[in-house]
Amino acid sequence: MFRTALRTVLAHKARLLMTVLAVMLGVAFVSGTLVFTDTLGNAFNKQSAKSYKDVAVSVTTYYADDQETDGKKQEPGLSPKVLDEIGAIDGVASVTPRVEGFAGVADPDGKLIGNGWSNTGTNFAPGENGKDPAYDFTEGTGPTEAGQVALDKDTASRGEYKVGGPVRVATNGPVKEYTLSGIFTTEDGAVNAGGSLVLFDPSVAQKLFLKPGYFQMANVTAAPGASDTKIRGDIESLVPKDAEVQTGKQLADQQAADIERELSGINQMLLAFAAIALFVGIFLISNTFTMLVAQRTKELALLRAVGASRRQVKRSVLAEALIVGLVASTIGFVLGVGLAVGLRSAMGQFGAKVPAGPLMITPVAVAAAFGVGVVITLIAAWLPARRAAKIPPVAAMSSVHAVATMKSLVLRNSIGAVLTLIGAAGIIAGAGVGKDGKLLIGAGAFFSLVGVIVLIPLLSRPVIALVQPLLNRLYGVAGKLAGQNAVRNPRRTGATASALAIGLTLVTGLTTVGVTLGTAIDKATTDNIKADYMITMAGGGGGLDESAVKALEKAPGVSAVSPQRASYLVIDGEDSFASGVTPGDIQQLLALKTETGSLDSLSGDAIAVASDTAKSRGWKTGDTVTVKYEDDKTARLKIGATYEPNEFTSPTLISTDLVGPHEERPHTPEVYVSMDGGATEANELALVDALGDNPAISVADQQDIRNQFGGMINTALNIMYGLLGMALIIAVLGVVNTLAMSVFERQQEIGMLRAIGLDRRRVKRMIRLEAVVISVFGALVGVGLGTFLAWAIGETIRGSIPGYVLVLPWERIGIFLVLAGLVGVLAALWPARSAAKLNMLTAIKTE
């Protein structure tokens, strides 16, 4: 029977090609994901181990202005005295202190190299030999004077900087020009992430990022034979209690665990989409084997007649599936390895530097790829194999294919209806629960999807019947025949449409939720921000320096300017986050809706509080509260106003004149600016000039602000579309496969139609229309279910998204349906051409 199965596979190579492609694509995604993440994990882990190879102990301090230790103000970092004490510990060979913060440089076009969070500045820390152990200089030397800096090799290359030449370096203060003293290579994570690293003279770095004379951290190397654990214990007694003291091995292990956690998220996401693709592939595989079994009814019946048992016939079909699964898995695994190599190269194209390392092909990746490919194929072929085993020997006497019994159809439809009702009830119940209903919705979505898939054959008849009059009117005989062919075999139509329905359910659901969230965010932005511009550090690279705020206040054409300083207060004994703002100007820049009192009171000794905060704390306008600032000084301030909660401000507003004197290092995430004449190119240029043409500072107008808040959603949607694209490709292969099989089955019928006058053009049109009808039917089911799921998901997040109102993206839905029709047309090209080329007389003689 195995030899029979092998001969059958070889005899039907063309018909099984689509099945091989479907399994191959799914396996390629699975194997590519596993090989890619294993390769990255191995490379980063080796890099991590290399980075901490010579580190015995690392010390990191966390400074806060208001912290005290044993009744004394905590020092801002590691002082020279503490560093000397650490160096004197028995077994310590050397101590390398560091201080770091944001620092960026521009490319030749004046744009920031990197993305803000990966732009780092630190100090050059030479040892006794004059070299810094963390950096290998390829040109020049490290900075030894206040006016010098050194750059990593990639940044110097991208910025076209030369040793001895000028470099403009941006921190959170004004841009300063330095002389490039050297270029180095490094394994620093910021550089590997596509960012930049600037080395300063130690005194300059301390002044920029902390305080003169202090360092944030230090790496300790041990003398031969010394115990890292003992050194760590001795250091812990010298540094503040909240300082983090770890051995090099602990740091390497922690970083390895962090890397694994990060890659695990990517791994799970990619594997989830691979699972979707394989799930869609099940319908294609099952459809293929169902049609092959139907076409070989006489052959299988003859096998039964000459003595083959049901079990042997079933094994024969499963053996065919096993062969197909093995072949497809082998090709898919090879493609997956190629995909992993491509993804690794693509990361480099996007600016991320991937550490060197071998391609990791683990036994787990091989076993998963072949296991998934073979198992999925066998599962999909099991039902057709079971049907094949039930073919009676007497069927060899007839050319009529076995048809589904009424009992099986009734049972199928009943199960489908029950599953759909259970799923719909779960989705509605989850939507009613709110934010805690996601699990119910997920379970309901699964049952609904399975139920609808089971019911699709039943649904196909009435739905397609609705468009039958239109087909008749527009396309005549070809349209009438196409509609009849689409519902002739409801199971086959249902299986083909199911693949498209799954893909469109996910695409429509994601699109609807994404567009709704984007609209809500866009509305919140336009409703709450009246300013012409929002000034921030590029890429969220920290807060703006006070010098930037003062420069903006002096810029020509500015009519209103206010920082939104992130301040920390203790009000009546409770911690409170506050926004430090400029009274008078803030009302012109943000749409703050006052409920009681007046925001003008901010110009005096008063604060304004969000109404929900005031209610929860039992405050009302006119009350006096005790405010404790960051420097522990206190003041009695009035509640001058309450305002409607606003997602762009903190629950408390306070004048910068009141809070400023108490903050040693103010943190200003953004500054809002309005200008005479509104947002114009000239006004934007005036702001850029006022800020010293600083590449690290972003000047965003209203549209930029909206894009900034809503851009992440569009990016996520585009990624999702790309990942779901493979599932849709498999669905298209399913349509092609179904039509090709259908043409093969109906050779005699097509020959008769040609004989009675249906020309080749109308034969092609008939096949194309059939494909379009099936594709659009599947798309309609998917759009309906996807919209229903999007509504339910929206109900769970409505409470956390101000102004959330479900938005149906009719334009995109229309595009999806048009694309589904186009898919049908393209999928029908080959089958339609094959049908039109059939020899009339040969086709009529075909059984």
From TrEMBL:
It comes from the Bacteria. Residues 17-237, 493-680 form the MacB-like periplasmic core domain. Residues 272-393, 723-839 form the ABC3 transporter permease C-terminal domain. Pfam families: FtsX, MacB_PCD. The chain crosses the membrane at residues 269-294, 317-341, 361-383, 415-433, 439-459, 498-521, 719-744, 771-793, 813-832. Keywords: Cell membrane, Membrane, Transmembrane, Transmembrane helix. It is found in: Cell membrane. The keyword Membrane applies. It is a multi-pass membrane protein. InterPro entries: ABC3_permease_C, MacB_PCD, Macrolide_Exporter_MacB. Belongs to the ABC-4 integral membrane protein family. This is ABC transporter permease.
